[in-house]
Amino acid sequence: MTSLRIRFAAEQDVSLVLAFIRKLAEYEKLSHDVVVDEESLRASLFGATPAAEVLLAFIGDEPAGFAVYFRNFSTFLGRPGIYLEDLFVEPGLRGKGIGTALLVHLAKVCVERGYGRLNWAVLDWNQTAIDFYKRMGAVLLDQWTICRVSGHALKRLAERNVISSVTL
Amino acid sequence: MTSLRIRFAAEQDVSLVLAFIRKLAEYEKLSHDVVVDEESLRASLFGATPAAEVLLAFIGDEPAGFAVYFRNFSTFLGRPGIYLEDLFVEPGLRGKGIGTALLVHLAKVCVERGYGRLNWAVLDWNQTAIDFYKRMGAVLLDQWTICRVSGHALKRLAERNVISSVTL
After folding, report:
1. Going by DSSP bridges, is the β-strand pair A117-123/A79-89 parallel, antiparallel, or unpaired?
2. What is the DSSP string of A131-143?
3. Residue B66, C-beta contacts closer than 8 angstroms, at least 6 positions apart
4. Which positions of A are catalytic?
């Protein structure tokens, strides 16, 4: 038996975090969307105002998986929560409880901070993940769809002419 | 013609923000999920580490709508973005461009801060909103489903026994 250890990532872990991000994108068939590099990741995670936190799981000294998350906010609860952006376990190490351990660790962070909920998104075709999340107590919010404006569309939206007065 | 003005909410606007949250919940048929009160909202929005920002729209001196949002983070972009939690325009003032003005204002905030994208979620039955968002340049991420653990399920997850070692 080799011990499982979970800890927060520090600045010296940036290249490991980047490697996990790329492995997750490959698994999700979304590698074409990945433009992050070590410099931008370091600035975002370990700069003056960190945009996210990272948990790392190790089996002995071997990196086994990670979770990237940030604080969100529910107006209905009037309380912050956590949004889990990425969760990944090395394919060769799945089915051993490492993903569960990461998710439970994150739920503990939520509860300790007095947060109200833990959200994330799953790809519809990833039935293995969906089944796992349901076993963890997750509800799937089927009636909601995520919208996104990014890249050129975001710039165009920002430059759109808007009204300055209204006829009542 | 009466002028349209958009500004950031300040602490003295808490009761107005709360009123908008409740009106939005009513419109979304989700009033049963609303437990926020003025105290928790004030602490979350105007405490030491604000969990979200709020934009308010006024027609003359009349409150017309609001947007609540917070910073999120894309690991694939390696950059922060904005997640729009709530967007609401008074029903009697719709179709005049106030929602567009709020969304454009928010896109400007994104671009000015060097953020990569603007995300939000829409209810599947709200075709008026979906059509509006598509006109604004939004893409609907149909292949993703939001998962959530909250309340008792979150506490149970946090208390779950996890492995402390792994057989390789």
Report:
1. parallel
2. HHHHHTT-EEETT
3. B9, B16, B17, B20, B54, B55, B56, B57, B86, B87, B88, B102
4. 133
Using CB atoms, which residue from B75, B98, B119 is nearest to A36?
Answer: B75
**B96 and A167 in contact by Cβ < 8 A?**
yes
Q: Are A21 and A63 in contact (CB under 8 A)?
A: no
Size of the A and B interface in Cβ pairs below 8 Å: 305
Tens digit of pLDDT per residue, chain A (168 long)? 899 999 999 999 999 999 999 999 999 999 999 999 999 999 999 999 999 999 999 999 999 999 999 999 999 999 999 999 999 999 999 999 999 999 999 999 999 999 999 999 999 999 999 999 999 999 999 999 999 999 999 999 999 999 999 888
B7 touches chain A (CB under 8 A): no
**CATH entry, A4-142, from 3.40.630.30, 3.30.1060.10, 3.30.70.270, 3.40.30.80:** 3.40.630.30
Confidence (pTM): 0.95
The answer to whether the beta carbons of residues B79 and B116 sit under 8 Å apart is: yes
- Contact assessment for residue B139 and residue A148, using Cβ atoms and an 8 Å cutoff: yes
Residues of A in contact with B153 (CB under 8 A): 137-139
**CA A135 from centroid of its chain's CA atoms:** 19
Q: Quick check: B104 and A136 CB within 8 A?
A: no
Indicate if ipTM > 0.90.
yes
Domain boundaries, chain B: 4-142
Residue given tokens 């790329």 in the structure block: A22
Contacts of A148 by beta carbon, 8 Å cutoff, 6+ apart: B117, B118, B119, B138, B139, B141
